[in-house]
Amino acid sequence: MRAILVITYVLCINFGFSQTEEIAITTIQSNINKADQFYESKQKDSALYYINQALILAKKFDVDSLQINTLLSLSNIESNKQNALSHLINAKQIARKNKYFNLLAKTYFRIGEFHYKNDTNKLAFNNYIKLDSLSSKHHVNPFLLAMSKTRLAGLLFRASNWTDAGQFPQIEMHINQGLKICDSFNLKIPAAKLNLQKGVLNKFRKNYSDAITYYNKALELSKKNQDYVTLAVIYNDIGSLYHIMKQIDSAEINYLRAIEVNKMHTDTLNLALMNLQIANFYNMISRPEKGLIRLSIAENLYKKRTDIRRENLFKLNDVATNIYFSLGKLDSAFSKSKEANRLFVEMTKVKNEENITELEAKYDNANKRNEIKLLKAQNKLVEEQKQNQRNLLMAALCISLLVAGFLFFLYRNRQQTNKKLKELDIFKTNLFTNISHELRTPLTLISGPIEKQLQNPETPSNIKENLSLVQHNSDRLVNLVDQMTELAKIDSGQSQLKVSYGHLRTILQQQLAVFQFQAEQKQIILNHNLDVPKEAWFDSDMLQKITANLLTNSIKHAAKGSIISIKSYVNTNMLEFSISNKVDNLNEINLNKLFERFYQVNNSSKGMGIGLALVRELVNLHKGQISIEKANVSTIVFKVRLPISKDAYNQDEIVEMLSPKALESLSSNSEDTIKEDASVLLIVEDDPDVRTFIASIFKVNYQVIEAVNGTEGISKALELIPDLIISDIMMPETDGIALTKSLKADERTSHIPIILLTAKVSDANKLQGINVGADDYITKPFKNELLTAKVDKLIALRKQLQLRFSQEIILRPSDIAVTSTEEQFLEKLQSVIDNELIDSTFTTEVFSQSLGMSRMQLHRKLKALTGQSTSEFIRTQRLKLAADMLKNSDTIVSQVGYAVGFNDHSYFTKCFKKQFGCTPTEFSNSK
Question: Quick check: 448 pLDDT over 70?
Answer without folding.
Answer: no
